[in-house]
Amino acid sequence: MGLLIDGKWHDKWYDTSSTGGRFVRSETQFRNWITSDGKPGPSGTAGFRAEPGRYHLYVSLACPWAHRVLIMRALKGLENMISVSVVNPYMGENGWSFDPAPGVVADPVDAAQYLYQVYLRANPHYTGRVTVPVLWDLQRNTIVNNESSEIIRMLNSAFDGICAREGDYAPQERLADINAVNSEVYDTVNNGVYKVGFATSQSVYEQELNKLFTSLDQLEAKLGQQRYLVGDDITEADWRLFTTLIRFDAVYYSHFKCNLRRLSDYENLWAYTRELYQWQNVAETVNFEHIKNHYYLSHPSINPNGIVPLGPILDLDQPADRNNLIKR
Ligand SMILES: N[C@@H](CCC(=O)N[C@@H](CS)C(=O)NCC(=O)O)C(=O)O
């Protein structure tokens, strides 16, 4: 775990001493958008037109932020248009690497050994964390964007004119509601589990834990009333919540001490998670071996002996049966 400072790698853990024991996630820096016509998107510069074979993704199968992108790629049927490299689940002193292991897919551009080398290819003086996902332009040889929330927005529509699969997960008329749910879920759940797990003070841990479970209790109630987070149709908001929920009992409950309740104790949330898991092409994006190996091995301050638990046993194939659960 570390970061680049003016193009040099430094092996440093997150510094919570200046923030009172609180984990603060840093801002993402590459913010260009792929668009159907190559015009600029909401941020960044122009020149990234949607074209088959032009873009490449660097992901970790362990990472919930990268996972959203893999899911959107699968939902939109972009597997043949956008290629993927997968890092080794262990994030060590050099950060993410491409060290060979089952499921790892090497860097096609110049066989980088570490992900930070990919960042340096885009900017030899880069300063910041080296995170997945990374959306890479094979034509211009640079990073388009490394912010998952923006990458999923572009994949949702930019390739529609060149045979992406039908489906709009962020329809204009629902956008305000989707954005509102996203920001609440991001703060309390997606990033919430990290704020709990990386807290280095008891009071911060307790505060963040209460926020997380208050939010899960509210989501449980909501999903007892309606099928999806923003009404009757599945949207981006659901997929963003899913990637945290699917890791909850296997990792966050024990490794991050998010243990007031298990996800499988929540009737609606658990059935919802199974429903989304069973969605066409989604189960293939879930890799519990990478998920568990990453978290339990990569945070020695939390799990010094690096024991990876064998459980829990989760029956994700059990029918979701949500029609019967929804009490209108
Ligand atoms: N804002 C980013 C966050 C991505 C992120 O934090 N990824 C983690 C993996 S789960 C990472 O690569 N961390 C490495 C580090 O912070 O050094 C996004 O959503 O794309």
UniProtKB/TrEMBL annotation:
Pfam families: GST_C_2, GST_N_2. Residues 171-295 form the GST C-terminal domain. This is Glutathione S-transferase family protein. It comes from Mesopusillimonas faecipullorum.
